Amino acid sequence: KVPDCRGDSDGPRRGSLCAAINNDLAELGCHLHRPRVPTGRLGVGWAGNGALEGPTVTPCVPPAVSTPSCCQQHSEEVCESCLVKTTLTAENAVEANKLSNNYKFGFKKWKSHVTARPWEDRSEIVKELYSDLNVIRGSGGSSLTCGNVLYLLLFGWWLSLLYVLVAAVMFITVMGAPYGQLCWDLAGYFLWPFGKVIQKVEVPKSHQVCEAGVGESSALLGGPTPLRWRLHCWEGTGYWHRASTAVWLCLGYPVLVVAHGLVCVTAWLLIVLIPVAKLSARAASRVLLLPPQRVLIRRLRMTEVPLEGEVILCCYRAANPYYYKYAVDGINVFAVNLLPLVLVTLVLGYVDSPNHLTGSAVKFTLALLSIMPLSYYIGMAIASISAQSNFAVGAVVNATFGSITELTFYITALIKGSREGNRCYAEVVKSALTGTLVGCVLFVPGLCMVIGGIRHQEQRFNSRSAGVSSALLFLSVGGVFAPTLFSKVYGKLVCGECHNVTQNPLGHYLCHNCHFDLMDNNGTLYYSHVQPLVYTVSILLPAAYLIGLFFTLKTHTHIYDIHISDCHSECPQVSWLFLSLLWSVPHISALSPVPGHHHSAVVHWSRWRALVILLLSTLCMSACADLATEHISPILTNSTISQYFIGVTVLAMVPELPEIVNGIQFALQNNLSLSIEIGNCIAVQVCMLQIPILVLFTIFYPTNFTLVFSDLHVYASMFSVVLMNYIFMDGKCDYFQGTVLVMVYFILLAVYFFAPSPSGC
């Protein structure tokens, strides 16, 4: 513990010690404003205002301690933040770089590991997920569980029946009798495999077994000699053995492999039943290919532990609810399961163009669902490349591919609308842009607050970093909607149909389909005033984004309080007395490399592999976006739901589902700063990057897209931004404030649901 300076009874000696410690603390805090290069096992991340991951240590500050000269160049608030730091630990330099990138403005926030975690650092729950089904444990309780019963109802009964039928066929062939006996034993095993073990054993010599007779006992687990061993006495090792194997491989094995393959695929897709998938895969690849005399099936007693032979299968539970954490080569199991959906979508979309097999609604749904795993792969590739590269490469990759998911869909929709002369596509794109903005400002942080508030009573975040994002968001929203407000002031109101409700020429008129016409007098207002304003805004917004990047990543990095440090090489000014005190505190030991815990980075995806996956995912994303826009037309024309609602909900939020999942995971770890930054960064990129890119695209490829939004989009966006800044003002929140944001979001969705369709649709 750091000694308390107030009221100490040890006299001036203890007071001078505490003063020296606090001088070192202040010097360390100001010294950490400069970025470092990560090496070894590192401590990552500092938060002066908000509670991030890890503990917070507040050293004592005696009234008489003078502020070092290095701190005088910063404001008093910054100097105070030097004394309160939070540490995040990383297993290696690559992982530390990824964690640091999470707190950089403009970089994609990614929760999953980009490197393989050391096995000894994982929890027992995760270790069980990756363990093979060949480990014999002690008594784990009753085998009668809900998951095991579910296995019996879904797979066990018919799989056991199939083994009985195959066993009958094998016995009929006579030559396949040993395999028939094996299938009979396996029928009982797969009916209820829990608490049983399958072993590969060494078979006693045939003459020894025959001489021993029926009463001979097995030397492995006790009990009578299996019938398959006695059948082996007359089976022989020559022609009869080869004939028996041939019969098995022709008649029995293919049927069982197909059945186990079906069980494996179904159980894997259900995720919680992945142990059943492993069970079936190992049975088809190992058990069924062994000679029948080398397979031994036994029920494990509570005190019985096999000492001889190789354990092939030993399963205790059919279901595990924690398999949502399971990953294959760093890829989450949900993304793995959705990858075949992309292939099905592309095949159906481009092979069945006349819609003979499926309709447009099915193809549109499949194309939209396929965007989710592709967004995950793009995010994983960006995070992997950024973590293994320098800052410049990471910034270029994030700026280039960070918004590729949304831009791909928007551009393909605008191209299709321009070819068909349909203005409805441009209105849908505007609705999707507004829906992304509103959803990332209200729904994403609100949902994270609610879910995180269930575990943590009150969550804090860095209000200064959130203030920077909020300022950029205010600027971006004002710039995006400036042409719209300009058109409302100077445009001419034109109505499609008006009726006199009082039959008096001077009475009241009821008008329908009214809008501000910008093309009056041959489009003088639009081409002379509105369009130059749009181009000016499209130049200023990216420039403001670059200034924000320079401000947060170069000149004012201390606002985010993020640092990667190796104290042995980076903190020479800190006294050995202070270092010894730091190392005496368990939670601060992550500031320096921990002896015996140096782990080399084993990345899931190398930079070249990540680049190839990024390019392939982007290509598939373009194809899926093309299919979605190709088959959205019947939905827009025949659906009774407003086109506003379709754009604001489905088209806007489905591509952001991986980001929402990342935000929820950060919130559950009491790291609400990143959850908020995820929503803010996406909203800022929509206004400052995506919309200017769309405007630039319309210059080279004329479309119906104009930067003039409906009144509903303007009011919803501005109200959302104001409400978000009011909620985030004090730097702390709870589930109630999150509920307010989510409820306001649903109210806006209700408004869009009941709103009439936009003009041109």
From TrEMBL:
<feature type="transmembrane region" description="Helical">
    <location>
        <begin position="246"/>
        <end position="276"/>
    </location>
</feature>
<feature type="transmembrane region" description="Helical">
    <location>
        <begin position="712"/>
        <end position="729"/>
    </location>
</feature>
<feature type="domain" description="Inner membrane component">
    <location>
        <begin position="146"/>
        <end position="196"/>
    </location>
</feature>
<keyword id="KW-0050">Antiport</keyword>
<dbReference type="InterPro" id="IPR005185">
    <property type="entry name" value="YccF"/>
</dbReference>
<feature type="transmembrane region" description="Helical">
    <location>
        <begin position="674"/>
        <end position="700"/>
    </location>
</feature>
<keyword id="KW-1133">Transmembrane helix</keyword>
<feature type="domain" description="Sodium/calcium exchanger membrane region">
    <location>
        <begin position="362"/>
        <end position="482"/>
    </location>
</feature>
<keyword id="KW-0406">Ion transport</keyword>
<dbReference type="Pfam" id="PF01699">
    <property type="entry name" value="Na_Ca_ex"/>
</dbReference>
<keyword id="KW-0813">Transport</keyword>
<feature type="transmembrane region" description="Helical">
    <location>
        <begin position="466"/>
        <end position="486"/>
    </location>
</feature>
<dbReference type="InterPro" id="IPR004713">
    <property type="entry name" value="CaH_exchang"/>
</dbReference>
<feature type="transmembrane region" description="Helical">
    <location>
        <begin position="357"/>
        <end position="379"/>
    </location>
</feature>
<keyword id="KW-0812">Transmembrane</keyword>
<dbReference type="GO" id="GO:0006874">
    <property type="term" value="P:intracellular calcium ion homeostasis"/>
</dbReference>
<feature type="transmembrane region" description="Helical">
    <location>
        <begin position="149"/>
        <end position="172"/>
    </location>
</feature>
<keyword id="KW-0106">Calcium</keyword>
<dbReference type="InterPro" id="IPR044880">
    <property type="entry name" value="NCX_ion-bd_dom_sf"/>
</dbReference>
<feature type="transmembrane region" description="Helical">
    <location>
        <begin position="331"/>
        <end position="351"/>
    </location>
</feature>
<keyword id="KW-0109">Calcium transport</keyword>
<dbReference type="Pfam" id="PF03733">
    <property type="entry name" value="YccF"/>
</dbReference>
<feature type="transmembrane region" description="Helical">
    <location>
        <begin position="391"/>
        <end position="412"/>
    </location>
</feature>
<feature type="transmembrane region" description="Helical">
    <location>
        <begin position="735"/>
        <end position="755"/>
    </location>
</feature>
<keyword id="KW-0597">Phosphoprotein</keyword>
<dbReference type="InterPro" id="IPR004837">
    <property type="entry name" value="NaCa_Exmemb"/>
</dbReference>
<protein>
    <submittedName>
        <fullName>VNX1 protein</fullName>
    </submittedName>
</protein>
<feature type="domain" description="Sodium/calcium exchanger membrane region">
    <location>
        <begin position="610"/>
        <end position="752"/>
    </location>
</feature>
<feature type="transmembrane region" description="Helical">
    <location>
        <begin position="533"/>
        <end position="553"/>
    </location>
</feature>
<keyword id="KW-0472">Membrane</keyword>
<dbReference type="GO" id="GO:0015369">
    <property type="term" value="F:calcium:proton antiporter activity"/>
</dbReference>
<dbReference type="GO" id="GO:0012505">
    <property type="term" value="C:endomembrane system"/>
</dbReference>
<feature type="transmembrane region" description="Helical">
    <location>
        <begin position="608"/>
        <end position="628"/>
    </location>
</feature>
<feature type="transmembrane region" description="Helical">
    <location>
        <begin position="432"/>
        <end position="454"/>
    </location>
</feature>
<dbReference type="GO" id="GO:0005774">
    <property type="term" value="C:vacuolar membrane"/>
</dbReference>
